[in-house]
Every structure is written in structure tokens, then in C-alpha cells.
Amino acid sequence: MKTILSFLTIWALLLLTTISASANSTKDQLSIPYQLKQMTLKEKIGQLFLVGIPGKQFTKKTARLLKQIKPGGVLLFSRNIASSARVARLNHSLQRFSKKHLGHPVFIAVDQEGDKVARIRTLPRMISPLAVGQTNRIEFAEEFGHTTGEILNGLGFNINLAPVLDLSDPNQSSFIGTRSFGKNPEKVARLSTAYMKGLEGEGVIPVAKHFPTHGHMKRDSHHEKVRSLRDKNELFETDFKPYLNSIQNRVLYSVMVAHIAYPEIDPSGSPATFSKPILTGLLRKQMKFDGLIMTDDLEMKGAGGQKNAPDILALKALKAGADVLMFAWNLKSQRIAARGIEQAISDGRISESRIDESVSRILKIKHRFGLYKEKSRSLANDTKSLIKNSRLIGLTQNVLDHHANQIEKIDPPSFTKKSPLIVLSSYRQFAYSFKKKAPRKAFRFFQVSRKQTLEKTISIYERFKTNNFVFHVTGSSSKKLLNRLPRKYLTRTIVVNSMTPGDILDSELTYRTLQFYSNYPALGHAVAKILMPKRLLASEKEFKPTSH
Q1: 494 bridge partner residues
Q2: What's the CA gap between 42 and 173, in Å, rounded?
Q3: C-alpha distances in Å from residue 348, one per residue of 128, 345, 353, 443
Q4: Rounded Cα distance, 343 and 329, in Å
Q5: Which residue, of 64, 65, 396, 446, has the fewest CB within 10 Å?
Q6: Cα(411)–Cα(173) distance, rounded to whole angstroms?
Q7: What is the per-residue burial (b if ≥16 Cβ within 10 Å, else e) of 112-142?
């Protein structure tokens, strides 16, 4: 009996030792140093790349590209996105293929800022960051992040190239426009931090952009070289505050760098993307940022992408301190850049240990957000409810109600049978929601297309001698049309602006303006309540957005 007990005791100890060793082995396999040792040089280099891919579905061509580059991330554009179910299947295939054939999960990124920069089409259309910013409500900003994250995570995305931390004055026309939460550093810091908490809460990695800043600029680094004469002290007082606040609150995991030169910070005149004083000296050392530094697309003109070889640009960005290299469009450029880095290591122009630094950060973020864990459900399930999102409907309505309540009452139009309200808009949803509140006899709707001529618009004004005109500005085409209208017609007009105030700023106060900062599905409903006499309004009903 003692012999049996002794044997059982020894067996139990051996079993416990084996289990413990197995657990330690598993832990070692998940450790970053262990993973790095198991990776080939090509696999490490591949992790540095965030690449664009062709097509709306996973094909043999996609598989070949992934095997050649072995990218750590994939970025989807409108060209890759069809229905919600199809994009979910594409993302599921990308992730499954990467784990099985490349040995690591892949970042799957998208630009889903809101309003005009939103690759995923939702119902209702996503409101703009500026619309949320103008409320100055932290709970709205965090819900904006949660709602966006819920949609993206459900479709298989794990990175959102947002929020835009640039400070942008709504009363001035700029490249940023409605993409920013506003111009006040403290407000943008609070709201962007709340937004990032919302994204993180849904398992989506936020990418703050565009460091050091693209705010207050009209020129676009996609199309030309841009430089700023602002110095470091000025930026710490203003534009850096949102970054510092999110670093302190531990919600800043990745920063995208702008292709903008800051000669007052780096006298060499190099764009920030290739500036070691900016990326390593300023962002890493002085601001204590330890997350991922991501380039904007290295094929943009602002980066010199049309004049320099892809491998030269990639190497310059790595030497400056970048971790993730974005090549969004040209498949040949992706291959040249990857081979170029391998050659640069071989001939000593950059060390493998420098590559390991960036790969370690990339793997750390992938573990932090659970990318190595299997999903518990199919990504393609019930994608329609994600796109027609009840949570987004509620948030949008709350933001719209806030702005409608803040608008100062203007003198209402005088209505007669022969003097209805004449509504011009390119947004059919505006008319649809307007007529839900106003009787049809009280207004006439004219759709203003992108190709609408000035002569055709003037003919509408001449046809109706009323002073009750409503002109809805929704984008650049309608803005240009409004700016070309003669003064005698503008004095008869109430402008409903869905863009930034600075885009249509009227120094002569020729027309009256209702400012809303975004295209809401229920905007017409709100405008009707402001402009129409109560006796003409339909009884209050819940407005439900449609696909009109």
C-alpha cells in the first residue's frame, strides 16, 4: 500500500511539473523576445508594412501578395468595400490566411473618421467629428468612439485611422474641415481622449493623426509638398495638447505622421515622416510616446513619392523612427520597398536590431488587443444590423437636437398660398425628412445635382418671386454654386450649412444661416421645425432614416 501511495505521489509531482513546464513553454512562445527569435528576417520586415490590396474579395492574387510581402497590416479603401457581408468575409479571409500561412495575425485598418471620410457606409450616415466637437459633450464623443468601434469590430477591422487630432478653426476654410473636433486644444484633448476610449472599449486600435499637425493649413500633402513655420514652443502650447493628454490617459497606441516639413524644429527641411529630430527626438524622447509611429502613405506627393524610389523612402522613415510603413496603392512599390530594406540590412545601412525594435512594438500591440486569440463568432453574422445601427441613430439624433436647440431663432418666412418654401438640396434625405414634418403644399423641393448650372438655379429663383428660399450646402459643388449666386437672390435665401462655417463665410451677411456641421438624416425635420409656423407642422413623430 505504501508503495502504491509513493508511486502515486511521484506520478502526481511529475504531472504537476509537466503541466507547469507546458504552461511556461506556452508563456515563452507568447513572449515578444521568443517570437522574434522564431521569425525570419523577411517575416520581420513584412511586419513593418501596412499595404493596400486589390479587389473586393480574397483571391489567389491577394494570397500571392501576402506570401511575398508577409505584411503586418492591410488597409482597405472604398475600392475594397462592397456590401457589409462581403467586407466581413474579406476581412475574415485575410485574418485566417495570415494566421495560418504567415504565422501572425494581421492588422486590418480603415479610415472611418465620420461624415465625408468614412469608407463604411452606414445608415444613418456617420456624423462629422466637428458636429460632435461643437456639442462639447464628452459622453457624445465616447459614444461616437463606441459606435464606430462596434461597427468596425463586427466587420473584422481592428484598426481605425482616427481620430484627427489636428486643431482646425471652423470659421476658416482648411484642408481638415469637419474632420477635427475643433480648434480649442483643451476641448479637442478631452473629446479625442474620450473617443479613443470608446474605440478601445470595442477592441479597435485608434490611430491619432496627423502629427505634428495638419491643422490651420489649406494645402494638402496628398498633392504637394507642405511646410509649416511654427516652432516647438508654440506647438506645445496648442497642437500637442491632445497628444499629451491621450498619452497621459494611456489611450494613445499609434500616431500617424504628416508629410509636412517643420524647419523651425528640423532645419534640414525634411518632412516629419523622415525627420529623426521630430519622430525620435520630439515624439519618442520628449513626449514619452512608446506606441507605434505610422507613416501616412509613402506614395503621396508630400512625401516625395513621385520622385523617390520606394525603398529609399521606406529606409529614410525607419531611420527617423517610424515603425509602420504605409504603401497603399502600388503593389510593385510594396515589393521594391520590402526587398530594399532587406538589402539595406545586408549591406549595413540599417541594423536588424533597429528592425526588431519596431517589430517588438507591433507584436506588443497585437497581443494587447487580442489579435492572437481566435474570434468566438463568425464575422459575417448579422452585418446588416451593424450598418443600420440603432446606436448610431440615437447618437446622431442627440447631436442634431443639441445643435437645433442652440440655433438662434431667425425671422420665419411669411407663408401664403402663393408663397411656399422653396428648398434646394442635393441630399434627397433632406427633402424626405422635411416633408415628414411640413405639409406638401407648404414647400417645393428641387434637387441640386453636382452638375447643376448657375443658369438653371437662377431660373428657379425667377420662377418663384417668394423670399422663402432654403439652400442646403452639402459639399464643394453646392458651396461653389452658392458663392456664384448674385446678391439679389442671396438676400432671399436662408442657407442650411452642413459643412464648416468657414466654407461659406459671408462677410457681408447677405443671407441668413442655419449651421449644423454635418449631413444628418433628420436634418430636414429639424429645419422644418425651425422655419415653419407651428400651425402648419405635422404632429411630432419619430423620424426613421431610410436609404433615400
Answers
A1: 470, 512
A2: 45
A3: 47, 5, 11, 73
A4: 23
A5: 64
A6: 28
A7: bbbbbbbbbebebbbbbbbbbbbbebeebbb
Give the count of alpha carbons within 13 A of 86, CB side only. 12
Residue 375: closest CA among 50, 31, 73, 95: 95
Instruction: For the beta carbon of residue 275, count every other beta carbon within 10 angstroms.
Output: 26
Q: What are the residue numbers of the active site?
A: 222, 296
Q: Which of 323, 326, 185, 199 is nearest to 252 (CA)?
A: 199
Please give the helix or strand (H or E) that residue 493 lies within, else none. strand 493-497
Residue 190 burial (C-beta neighbours within 10 Å; 0-12, 13-18, 19+) = buried
Task: Give the whole-angstrom CA distance, residue 261 versus residue 303.
Answer: 10
* CA 481/CA 504 separation, integer angstroms: 11
CA-nearest of 350, 235, 230, 358 to 293 is 358
Torsion on CA atoms 162, 450, 299, 324, rounded to nearest 10: 10
132 is written with which cell numbers?
460632435
Give the burial string for 26-56 (b: 16+ CB within 10 Å, else e).
eeeeeebeebbeebeeebbbbbbbbbbbeeb
Place of cell 503621396: 300
Cell of 79: 475600392
pTM: 0.89
- Cis before residue 212, ω within 30 degrees of 0? yes
Radius of gyration of the chain (CA): 27
Q: What does the pLDDT look like over 484-543, one tens digit per residue?
A: 999 999 999 999 999 999 888 766 667 889 999 999 989 998 998 888 777 666 655 544
Give the model confidence (pLDDT) of 194-241 as tens digits: 999 999 999 999 999 999 998 776 655 555 678 888 999 999 999 999
Pairing of strands 112-114, 117-118: antiparallel
Contacts for 487-495 with beta carbons within 8 Å, 24 or more apart?
Answer: 489/458, 489/461, 492/461, 492/466, 492/467, 492/468, 493/469, 494/410, 494/413, 494/469, 494/470, 494/531, 495/470, 495/471
Q: Which three cell numbers stand for residue 364?
A: 506588443
